[in-house]
Amino acid sequence: MKRIGVLALQGGFAEHMQKLRQISSVEAVLVKKREELDGLDGLILPGGESTAMGRLLRGEKLIDILRKKIRGGLPVWGTCAGMILLAGDIEGQKETYLDVMHIRVRRNAYGRQTESFSSDSPCPSVDKGIHRLIFIRAPYITGTAASVDILLKLDGHIVAAKEGTMLATSFHPELTDDLWFHQYFAEQIQHSPSVLT
Amino acid sequence: MEKRWELNRNLAQMLKGGVIMDVTNAEQAKIAEEAGAAAVMALERVPADIRKEGGVARMSDPAMIRSIQEAVSIPVMAKVRIGHTAEAQILQALQIDYIDESEVLTPADENHIMKSSFQVPFVCGARNLGEALRRIGEGAAMIRTKGEAGTGNIIEAVRHMRTMNRDIGRTVTASEEELMHLAKAYGAPYDLLRYVHDHKKLPVVNFAAGGIATPADAALMMQLGCDGVFVGSGIFKSENPSRRAAAVVQAVTFYEDPVKLEEISENLGAAMTGINMEEIPREQHMADRGW
What is the pLDDT of residues B58-70, one digit of tens each? Predict the structure, then answer.
């Protein structure tokens, strides 16, 4: 049994919990405080507002400890705002949050809510299926270091990437009825060596 | 259209566990964002001032809304009068992220806007399940309880949330045979009532609004089952807006943790003064607007 935490400061964390509960090899827990980070085999940073989550992460003094754990090998997956939290470079601003993934991201890259969309697309680097990808005021990746694997490009933009034990997606698999990406994350955790920190 | 409604409903899901704050200029919007607001509501006068000054309250100047859109990266919402389709068209042209068809402004029609004919999402107020489902039937992608705006008094928000919970509980436990009668009693579209019966919850996110002035008020509404809160006059009518804003944000996250709430509630300066419900003549209750 692997224990996966979902950061529950703000945003769509309940939706991730609901998906994780459908995977039998996984125990899902909400994470709001430092002590709740102990004993995790993986962590999901949900969608929501990255500025709100960033403010709460700082208030709870979670930034440094999370960065240390992720750099130490704790598998992590950021969706939408979670991608921004992971990024080492956010366009148009100096401030970063966890600064662990070597990606440059553009906030609200598609525009405002009227530009939010969904697309039924394959993602061959993960599996053979066609999946509904939901983009809500989504960011995308505009630059990557050599250590980053691009998992999916949509209309020329990078919307999913992997670097070591870190995953980032612009879209929201937790808003669909499809377990594919949660399963993929759970498999990554099964194969990753035990977390050191 | 169904697909657009889904996407709009999804945006509200991303606002959950968050605080949406009323702001009247770009400077306040930045303070709100910095404090951790999940979105801001751009309007020229906060409800407390609308209440005090009287007169017809309308949609805000688009230039003022635009200046707020340019100042922050979080979603920007703005209010239109109930039933004022043209105001909503103007806000859609401005690419607002969410329109609040709001009883805080002076109503323009006894019919609400046909929200399903818009691309842009709408949030609407409700005092009970029937009102919420009528608004969702018209296309609202998010609901908020209609506390009494601009009073700094939480009682009406609590009353309406309790009513909503009671109505949902009644719907969930109703037998198949009772559902149509219940739809009639609540004035609710049958298919949406059926959804509530089957899923044991509203089809969209429900925030608390109206009268929230302290972190404890926000925590109370979260404990009653709201997905997040709107704070109108409560922030920028208080002594220390940025501090109070950050405290309300924390309270919504840690609403189940009294030790944390105590810490959060310390030294915030004076809250807005507030008004007791007995001091407001019934015909001036904003929550009664809407059909």
Answer: 999 999 999 999 9
Residue with tokens 């969309």: A117
Mean pLDDT of B180-199: 98
In chain B, the percentage of residues whose pLDDT exceeds 90 is 84
pLDDT digits (tens, 9 = 90+) for A86-115: 999 999 999 999 999 999 999 999 999 999
* pLDDT tens-digit series, residues B172-185: 999 999 999 999 99
Dist CA B228 CA B157 (whole Å)? 13
**Could you give the CA distance from residue B41 to residue B75 in angstroms, rounded to a whole number?**
9
**A52–B95: do the CB atoms touch at under 8 Å?**
no
pLDDT at B279 > cutoff 90? no
Interchain CB contact of A6 with B (< 8 Å): no
Fold for A2-190, please state it: Rossmann fold (3.40.50)
Q: Which helix (H) or strand (E) covers residue A134, if one does? A: strand A130-135
Tokens representing residue A72 in the block = 């130490």
Residue of A16, A102, A131, A174 marked active site: A174
Instruction: Determine the pLDDT at residue A30.
Output: 97
Does A133 contact B at CB distance below 8 Å?
no
What does DSSP assign to residue B49? H
> Which residues in chain B touch residue A112, judged by CB atoms under 8 angstroms apart?
69, 75, 95-97
What CA–CA distance (Å, rounded) separates A10 from A7?
Answer: 8
pLDDT of residue B47: 87
Cβ-Cβ pairs closer than 8 A, A with B, add up to 110
- Integer angstrom CA distances of residue B177 from B168, B174, B195, B198: 16, 8, 15, 14
- How high is the pLDDT of residue A47? 97
Average pLDDT value for residue range B257-274: 93
- Report strand pairing: A76-79 vs A87-90: unpaired
For chain A, give the number of residues.
197
Tokens of B5: 């409604």
The SS3 call for residue B246 is helix
- Residue ranges of E strands in A56-106: 76-79, 87-90, 101-106
